[in-house]
Amino acid sequence: MPDTLPPAEPRPAASLPSGLLDALLALLGPRGVLTDPADIAPHLSDWRNLYRGSSPCVLRPANTGELAAAVKLCAAAGVPMVPQGGNTSMVGGATPDESGRQVVVALTRMNRIRDIDPVDLTMTAEAGVVLKTAQEAAAGAGCLFPLSLGAEGTATIGGVLSTNAGGNTTVRYGNARELMLGIEAVLPDGQVLHGLRRLRKDNTGYALRHLFVGGEGTLGFVTAATLKLFPAPRETEVAFCAVRDEDAALALFRRFRDRDDSAVRAFEYMSGTGIDLALRHIEGATLPLAERADHYVLVDLATPRPDGGLRALMEAVLEEALEAGEVLDAAIGESEAQRGAIWRLREEHPEAQKREGASVKNDVSVPVSRVPEMIRRCSAALVELIPGSRPVPFGHMGDGNIHMNLEQPEGADPAAFLARSHDIMDTVNAVVRDLDGSFSAEHGVGRLKTDMVADWRGGAEIDLMRRIKAAVDPQGLMNPGKVLD
After folding, report:
1. DSSP-based three-state secondary structure for 452
2. What is the pLDDT of residue 10?
3. Is Secreted tagged as a keyword (predicted)?
4. Which residues contact 274 (CB under 8 A, 6 or more apart)?
């Protein structure tokens, strides 16, 4: 939590190799190089305040050519570089270390949408374009860019691609990787990979673009991408449901999927504890049901068909589930405002947990069929580990990704609780491993989970990752200390 960390510590630019700062200033201009400690400070800590590093300066290139030239200068001087977009990483993936040697490269000035083609259903956007801006630009062209997550008002295209972000609509549209057709990137030696193709079929050797999606900036900097668009939905329906238990939540998902898989845009699970925290801490949040429950789901349906009949579908499935005892109560949003209010209960979970006190995040995934067992087993194990602690599982039941978070016991010392973060993560991961899952679903590895990679992805898998890293970035200057320790 914020009060458990020392202040961020900018380092003087004089700590850079001789002549490098002058060369960078000549290249990028005064707007492109931040050296004032007050200007640098916001770039030195992550959203969760897990890490606070040091840096001699922040580079802010305005275009790909400037970035490529700056990378060449830093590479020649042996200076490590840390890419940063909206700085919303949950695992410290965009934060410099404490050495004061790493230069932050902020890509937020590279924020042009270069092209939108509603016939090809593609958009080419630069790395610094905010995700919400990309969504709005697509909507303005009569299309849909479906990637959606809680930080979409801050997160950038380069960041969501570098972390292979998932979010709320993965069950229907896939992760960021599935939404990317082509990519432009600056390599560790300053070369530019020109791969902004908008082809649906391009079978010409290694798909190099995929090295950078999920690479977290360790192989190069994503500067632009060609993204898939979809026809805009003509009809949407959102429901908030109290369900009997975790198994009933999964049964409801299967009912919707079996009735019309293409209509299910999102299916989110929330615990009673999580909703209680949202109602307690988020101004204006209200429960749309008559009584509190221990388990809830959010169902979001959408279709581009003008005669999709989603309301009839929603009501029919919920009626079946009510008769079966799976759903205890449900409310269907009657307006855009009501649908937004339902979604807000889900989206404000991280902020509500932050305001309640210290919490440890566990972004994990298991096969969809095993989500109920994972929630139950992890919750029991965590309470046994730290009596009085409060499991707050929530997230994307439709794709198997649950944020198995743990809130500190009421009245406990936040620092003492956070000191057990790795014990908490190990407890969750033991269950997840037993259920054939993953220790990182959509947040990435960053700095937080590098010690887990060798254990979970050992043998030939990690050996190949290390060989790729060594081949592409032999000096180890690209976002060092992330993904691979």
Report:
1. helix
2. 59
3. no
4. 349, 352, 353, 392, 393, 394
Given CATH 1.10.3720.10, say whether it is the number of domain 357-441.
no
Residues 6+ apart with CB under 8 A from 483: 215, 216, 218, 444, 445, 446, 450, 453, 465
Looking at CATH, the fold of the domain delimited by 2-106 is given as: 3.30.43
* Rounded Cα gap, residues 438 and 402, in angstroms: 11
Residues in the chain, pLDDT under 50: 1-4
pLDDT recorded at residue 1: 37
The number of beta carbons lying within 10 Å of the beta carbon of residue 100 is 16
Backbone phi, psi, residue 115, to 5°: -165, 140
May I ask the CATH class of domain 113-231? alpha beta
Topology match between the domains 235-349 and 357-441: yes
Domain range list for the chain: 2-106, 113-231, 235-349, 357-441
pLDDT of residue 3: 38
